[in-house]
Design brief:
Layout (H helix, E strand, L loop, with lengths): L10 H7 L5 E2 L3 H10 L1 E4 L3 E7 L7 E6 L7 H21 L5 E7 L8 H15 L1
Parallel strand pairs: 1-4, 4-5
Antiparallel strand pairs: 2-3, 3-5
Helix pairs in contact: 3-4
């Protein structure tokens, strides 16, 4: 019988989930730097700002933001979760170039069909790349 503190782990499931390692932008300075020096693509369901970096040591860092203009805390959190899922799925199907990305939620981000978010993010990546 398993102890209450022990859990069985499926290593293949864990390794497939960690195929794309997304580092998150957290500091205000990083967000402001991307906004000031990066390229910007405005889509109907989201805005993408990016600074691409060159070199072997560069990594993909992503930041998510949703302002109070788009709704209550519940709506903003839903929008950020949907943006995170979009980045994770797109990054698994095609590799993102090294750099810093900021995704900004818009009014319809929380309610738009998920396929629209995916399509808009793919299109925005072609603009900022």
């Amino acid at each position: 019988m398993m102890d209450r503190c022990q859990f069985s782990t499926n290593t293949t499931l864990q390794s497939s989930l960690k195929a794309f390692s997304r580092h998150t932008l957290k500091r205000r300075f990083d967000f402001l730097n991307v906004a000031k020096e990066g390229r910007k693509a405005v889509m109907p369901s989201l805005i993408v700002q990016a600074i691409l970096k060159k070199g072997d040591e560069a990594e993909v860092r992503v930041g998510f933001t949703a302002t109070r203009k788009i709704g209550s805390a519940v709506v903003r959190n839903r929008a950020r979760r949907r943006l995170r899922s979009t980045v994770d799925l797109i990054a698994k199907e095609r590799s993102l170039k090294s750099g810093d990305y900021v995704l900004i939620a818009r009014q319809i981000t929380a309610t738009a069909p998920f396929e629209v978010l995916m399509k808009d993010f793919r299109k925005a990546l072609t603009y900022v790349s």
